[in-house]
Model the fold of this input.
Amino acid sequence: NEGISLTGLVTLTATITDTDGDHQAATLDVGAQLSILDDGPSISTTGTGSPLSVDESNLPSGSVHAGATSASGSFSGAFTSVQGADGATISYALSVGTGTNTLVDSGTSLGVTLVSSGGGSLITGYVTGHSGDAAFRVFTVGVDTGTGSVTLTEYRAVHQGSPDTPTDSNEGISLTGLVTLTATITDADGDHQAATLDVGAQ
Done:
């Protein structure tokens, strides 16, 4: 809602003329007295999106080894936006969250390091010490930056460094606080606003 100034663009001239034609004029920069209030866009987090779940029983070495290890869902509905008079578009990006990472790669007993790439379109969990090596890729979280569709894919078995309850069998592994999704709305004259969702909690 910043003001748009017309200073120097519009002038008003007043001319006084007497009965025998003598006249004099004075000019005012009336544009300095005029303003147009811009209508900026807005966005907020008002929902949670589609819960995503994968089962490592479906990994090649798992007990089932025949099912899906990838799940996708749209998170655009987790955000409510107002475009404003200028019209606007929304883009989506992932980032590594600030939560405590207790993930452990089951095959090596090493931790899992989260790495952002693709301009915020992908978060990859690698076995610690092997970032960038596809052979040690534990899972990925990707987003379609134009639609907000998020995909979780698991490649290696993983657990958390927490006491068994009572065993690891079917124990849920949470990514809460580890991956965030930011939706940014930008209008035609560059005004923008962003809102962030803890997509790891989903």
Observations:
- The chain has a mean pLDDT of 86.
